[in-house]
Write a structure and sequence with these properties.
345 residues, globular, 3 domains, binds FE2/S2 (inorganic) cluster, binds iron/sulfur cluster, alpha+beta, 7 strands, Ubiquitin-like (UB roll), 46% helix, two-stranded antiparallel ribbon, Fumarate Reductase Iron-sulfur Protein, Chain B, domain 2
């Protein structure tokens, strides 16, 4: 079967991207996207540039955007990609079935997002690696010196870090990350997955320092919980789940000075327990104003507070009414908190 492959080409960092289309004979059930790129490079256009190595979802080299979603070219079968595209495009009411069938035969290949393009599908991953090093992604040297022989782990200890340890640093999650897209300082899902991998390692002796370091907007609190990283990770690392696990460690650490992000979560639970929902007028004062002790924070709330009241997004304090179900909600939260304290899951 002939398929069309539309590839984003870019001659250099400073040039503008253009799309080039190739017609390729393919077996969609047997060929991966990487097979198709190889065919193009070997048989039609030797100037096409992309990364590849293992061809087997091991090295993480072939990360790219395939029909709008980042992933590994050597993992995606052509049929899988075109089927996804078809299911999005076809609706029962479609009267353009022929046209749609042709469109379903178009593979669109682009370089990963959130990283500058060097040439064609090859991106400069310096920032990705620099951000990884910001989480100090190694089991600490001090603990490595404890034993001159093997430092064994039980299966249960190993299991704890298994998902995060699967990361092959392909960059797919980074490419789709909304927080990375808007913040130059956010370390990215790959780095936080690795952060959890060392945090969960019983051989590491820097837990306290790590928890304090990751308790920051540039680290776990910068994540917007968009789920994109979980959706695209080709090897089941589920970075967002790892980020949530780090947050749990932070929230349970009573020694840490309370950050705004922690206060945000504690206050939310407190207020919902008190009245069944969030009293916005108290929320801002407690979180941003730190209970009247942060004058700058308090002043910053005034314009927002006025806008919220005028647009009726927040009631006047005397209009606020607790939920009728507040007692049930309180009981529910307390039982969850008790389970947490008792070590229940
Ligand atoms: S869930 Fe968080 S870390 Fe993952 S892609 Fe979204 S913003 Fe980035
Ligand atoms: S977490 Fe998954 S998507 Fe992100 S770099 Fe690692 S393997 Fe790739
Ligand atoms: S070539 Fe190694 S992961 Fe695709």
């Amino acid at each position: 079967m002939k398929i069309s492959v539309k590839i984003q080409r870019q001659a250099s960092r400073s040039s503008n991207p253009v799309y080039q289309t190739y017609e390729v004979e393919a077996d969609p059930q047997a060929n991966t996207v990487l097979d198709i790129l190889n065919k193009i490079q070997w048989e039609q256009d030797g100037s096409l540039v992309f990364r590849r190595n293992c061809r087997n979802v091991i090295c993480g080299s072939c990360g790219m955007r395939i029909n709008g979603v980042s992933g590994l070219a050597c993992q995606k079968l052509v049929s899988e990609v075109l089927e996804i595209q078809g299911s999005l495009r076809h609706s029962p009411a479609s009267t353009e079935s022929d046209l749609n069938r042709d469109r379903d035969r178009v593979l669109v290949i682009e370089p990963m997002h959130n990283l500058p393009v060097i040439k064609d599908l090859v991106v400069d991953m310096s920032k990705f690696w620099d951000n990884l090093s910001r989480v100090d992604p190694y089991v600490s040297t001090a603990s490595r010196q404890i034993s001159n022989t093997e430092f064994l782990q039980t299966p249960a200890q190993r299991e704890k870090l298994q998902a995060a340890a699967n990361c092959i640093l392909c960059g797919s999650c980074y490419s789709e990350c909304n927080a990375t897209n808007v913040s130059d300082r956010f370390v990215g899902p790959h780095a936080l997955a690795k952060a959890y991998r060392v945090l969960a390692d019983n051989r590491d002796d820097l837990t306290t320092e790590r928890v304090a370091k990751y308790n920051d907007l540039d680290f776990v609190w910068g994540c917007t919980r968009c789920y994109n990283c979980n959706e695209v990770c080709p090897v089941g690392v589920q970075p967002l789940d790892r980020i949530s696990q780090i947050k749990q460690e932070i929230l349970q650490d009573r020694e840490l000075p309370e950050s705004t992000a922690q206060r945000h979560r504690h206050t939310m639970v407190e207020l919902v327990k008190e009245s069944g929902w969030i009293d916005e007028s108290k929320f801002g004062v407690k979180v941003v104003g730190n209970n009247f002790s942060d004058i700058k924070g308090m002043l910053s709330l005034i314009p927002l507070g006025i806008r919220m009241i005028l647009s009726r997004k927040m009631p006047w304090p005397w209009e606020f009414k607790p939920s009728e179900a507040k007692q049930q909600i309180k009981t529910l939260i307390e039982s969850v908190q008790k389970r947490g304290k008792d070590g229940g899951s």
